[in-house]
Amino acid sequence: MDDTPIFQCNGVGKAFFGVKALDNVDIELRRGRVLGLIGENGAGKSTLMNVIGGFFPQDSGEMFLDGKPYRPEGTLAATKAGIGFIHQELNLFPNLAIAENMFIDDFPKRGPLIDRREMARRTTGVLKALGMDFPPWLKVERLMPGERQMVEIARVLASDARIIIFDEPTTSLTAKETEKLFVLIGQLKEEGRAIVYISHILGDVEKLCDDLVILRDGGITAAGRCGEFCVERMVASMIGRDIGSIYPPKTNKPGGEVALSVKNLSQSGIVSNISLDLKKGEILGIFGLMGSGRTELMRMIFGVDDYESGAVTVDRVPIRRSNPRDAIDKGMAFVTENRRDEGFLQSYPIVDNIGLVYMRDFIHPLTRLVDRKRVAGESVRIAGELKIKYASVDRQAVKSLSGGNQQKVALGKWLVKRPKALILDEPTRGIDVGAKYEVYNIINDLAAGGSGVMVVSSELGELMGIADRIVAMNRGEIIQVFARGEFDEEAIMRAAFRIHEDGMRIGSAS
Amino acid sequence: MSAQIEYKTEAGWRRWLRRILASEFFVLYLTIAYVLCLSPWIPYFWSMGNLTDILSNTWPLLVIAVGQTFVLIIGGIDLSQTSVLAFASIVGAALICTSLEPYIFSKCVMWGWIVAEDGGILAHSTAGFVLAIAIMLGCGMFVGLLNGISVAAFRMPAFMVTLVTMMMFSAVALYLAGSENIMHLPDEFVLLGDSYDLVSVPMFIAIGVTILAHILLRRSLFGMQVYAVGVNPMASRISGVPVRRVIILAFVISGLCAAIGSILYTARFEMGRPTLGATMLMDVVGANVIGGVSLSGGKGKILWAVFGVLFFVILANTLNFLNLSFYTIDLVKGVVIFGAATLDVVRGRIAQAS
Amino acid sequence: MNKLKLFLLNNAAFIIFIVIFVIFGLLSPRFLAYKSLEIIIVNATFIGVIAVGMTFVLLTGGIDLSVGSTMYFSAAVLGYLVNDLGISIWLGMLVCLLVGLLIGALNALMITRIGMVPFIATLISMILARGAGMFITRSVPMDYPESLTTLDAINVFGVIPMPILLFALVVLAASVFLRDTQTGRQLYAIGNDPEGGRRAGLDTRRLTAMTYMICGTCSALGGIVSIAQLGRVNASFGVGNEFDAIAAAVLGGASLFGGIGTVFPGTLLGAVMIQMIQSGLVFTRIDLYLQPIIMAAIIFLAVLVDSIRSSFIKKLQRRNITRQGDAAAGDENADG
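ok -> structure tokens follow
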């Protein structure tokens, strides 16, 4: 294969409001090669990709496409130049059909009208190549997050882009879908396309990429052939120092008393007959694939969604159905999977977010007014404990914080009082290595202090690192429960995929 | 050297302008600037008579707009406030009027059981008078409750719900009164609209309501919850905010404020009017939006509504003085609001950039 | 069972329509006559045409409060041209439509270029257009030549009343545009997520601007229809019609938050439904004072049923993930 770079960036820089987001960055893309781009959140990965994708121009430096100067005037110009962008934040319109989303900026036409038959034909073709058999006129709102991600990928494939940028494509994919995606990326390589792959999952990067560029604080800290790097070296270059290990040492001791108990919880079509106990001081991992009912189960336990039968108790006190306030009053806390839409009030500062859950406790007994000073004091305390990096607790909108810090705010609002039972749904999704470590620490400390913590995750390695027991779920049922001593990646995976050779099935976990 | 100094002074001037534009008091400054600019042409503006007039127009509108602010912050809109004005006005006036002309009212539905020749059933007693006021407030709260339940429990769009209740209760007011004004209100009631130069009963009521609303919104648990629901109802629900109750209460407050406004207007005009407030909708919502309250929820302050109301009242007042023919008033009004709205956009951009 | 439920729920608007029709028919058999149906549709044309324009604006998540004043201003211009300048009614009507387009363009300018919220921008042009109309008419009622007012009574091909033909053409053009052109589909996209639209490279400004211009033109057209029917325009012409148009579009399923709604059958049904209730109340000779109350109650019910319907559909379409639910895969239909 010819070795001249298809795309080059020379000394590209970009600043926002005087703060340097990118500083003198050089990268080269070659036909048929995958470039891995890693770095902590805020390191400049997204900024760099947005410059290439035409969202905004660079302040300094030059870019070359096929050896010719390249300066896109907008996203459409970038697309026309052959650059395809698969966003981490989905760029689909759920009120439109899959086929319409595929061609939203350039419909196939017959005369002035859109050519539905041609759209259907091409959509079906691309979907088939990805191993999906959805009807092309299915509305995107009916798809699960992972499926939507696949549609987003299909959309870029349908436009024959020569350079394809994947920005965290696997965050909402199941293991199976991820595997499919990797096979596909292999095919794209063979077709001679250049690929940029951005991810926090370093194992994937190691497996998939040919070249590697590591960014920190807007500049390149290391670059080279991927084979020259091991995960430890990647991490060290990303955060600029060595961390002892990925998981903090476990200090919690599960007690004998039950913090949260679920008995025979059922909702037809979603979960059937779920029973489990969470002990005080225990970290219980819930592992299942996307669509296994794990998120739905957590929402029912906390009372966000309704269920048909069953009972939930916290510290032996029954919790009312479909009533989050009751769950909170009885000592439960819940950090949802969808932090952007459900985790916090985006446009409001840290104070309003941290004060939201237990605002009642800040009311002056006589005047019945909220003591803002005490809320602010408490926010500063929690922000300090969780090591949240902020400019101002009462001026700065939470949405301007980095992903990891946002997650800490979403977590922090539950820590005004020590919760008896805390449910965390995908607490480390989309946050960087450093922030992950800190979140694990927080979880560990909470459990060590006597709270029961339930962690839902699709990263098995993470659960094996921090949990005392792991519950494997599949299609709305608990398949098997593993204690820490018997953690075995393969066995847990088999349970979650419901590959039961030995017919062993455990209906309840206790 | 001199060029540098010039540059510096310009920067100082710019910073000053920027600070004004970004200020919370911007709409107030704008109103003051507007008055100052127009003063030479309308000397009468500063006369006691006119100031009294401006203020007496401000108070009831302020109360109503403050109620609307609550609904706007939760991301709703209340179009039915105008119908509450008419509905409460007619019900209250019918209950307490001291006499009615049979030749006008004998065909109306209330005749014979609520009203008769010697007035309403609650006339002629203090207890009845107080009860009548309570019923007027109840009318507003009832409409608010209906709106709130429809929006919160049945998830109907606020715009449609309140549009329908607006149609309905305006029609009920006309139906009850048979399209007639109800006169002969007792002196105690008319007293509620009384004014002695700048000081007036409505002033105390309006300022009281405004301060109360401000404290409720900024300092109480309910206020915090109102903002939270306005920004993100789902995140609020998961955080234990009783979202439905907050939404219903916001609409009830809006209806209640409209009813208080109705009492003030009814007392000032000394009659119950079935068409009261029919043209006020745009002033109420417009004042809030010009003041800076967002129609998409989560953003707004009582103070902003106050400035917005002041702007609208003074605008209307000065337009009457400009010696404009009635057919140019609207044109000038439109241009002024356009100017204010444009400045508001500029202001938003500056706030974002700094 | 679920399929039947889903079918009933999906067609709730149509079913409500039929139910109301039957009830009025039972109360007053004369109502069921072909002629009365024709009158209903003829009378629905004026609000219907405006509601079609409003649907475009609602699709982008906007709102247009200026339609009533646009009707008045463009009608005033038409009257001035035809009565005072003696211009032919056809040229006059063309200019009238252009005036509507211009007010729409003014709205578009304020919203997409200056960056005002649609509520305030269209409130401004509502005041301005009313003022401009007053400036022309001096608020004196205007009469129009017979050649214009008799247009209403023309039957095309001897059978189809002119307004119905016009209404049908507007609905056809608008729904083909929304359903079968690239621009139409992109309107749905930006209405659902303007930021996402920009990211996907769509020209959000141009698309948004277009909807206000269409809405302005439709308002002027609705004004002409109304003039032809009434023959006379006074100072309150069009006041409050913005709410009728919004109500018709929303009854037809359009969302005030953008991205959802159809012209056919949606807005068409909504407009005819409102007119049907009005005519039905007249036919059944209900007390004039009670008519608007009953009207409001029926619309309230319709909106209520629609809300219950959408939450029900959401529940029914919740994915089955347990093994028992394997057979239950949803069936799809593609409509905007």
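The beta strands of chain C are 142-143, 155-156, 160-161, 232-233.
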